[in-house]
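Issue 218. Parser rejects a valid record. Input:
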Amino acid sequence: VEKRIVTKEEVESKLQEMAELTTYSGEYTITLSKDEARYILDDYKIPGTTNSIEITASGIVKVGYDINDIKIRVDDFKIYISLPDKAKLNDNYVIWDSVKYTEINSILNPINLSQYQEIVDEIETKGLADVESKDIYEKAEENVKKIISVFLSEFVDYEIIYM
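Output the parser choked on:
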């Protein structure tokens, strides 16, 4: 019985078909509010100048691997695969259709667009922290191993070993 000899280049070529791989995504919903007022001499709030914004938004965080960062070695009917220490952040964004907001505007201190952007940026930051606390990177690693195993399943005589 002849056994197929697999080379490192052949395994790399097979995995290159995937390029960048998002292996896990998590969702979050965050509510943040911010009040802003005008001040005299940086210490005294001017009455009637407070504006307020509250935003509730959902978002998605996607993590995964760049196939070029995965190291491969083939030896004695074994394929050794070394993954990076941690999956990388591929995307983090707010789903704009989910955004709900309330605002209280002041004629003496109108709300400007930068206030909204600051809150949205903070929602994305807190959302990322929320999803990271739910082991997103560990789940991404589990999924990439499953995906690689399926992709390399044609090499039936070889054992895949993750290092």
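Fixed in the parser; the record now loads. The longest strand covers residues 20-36.
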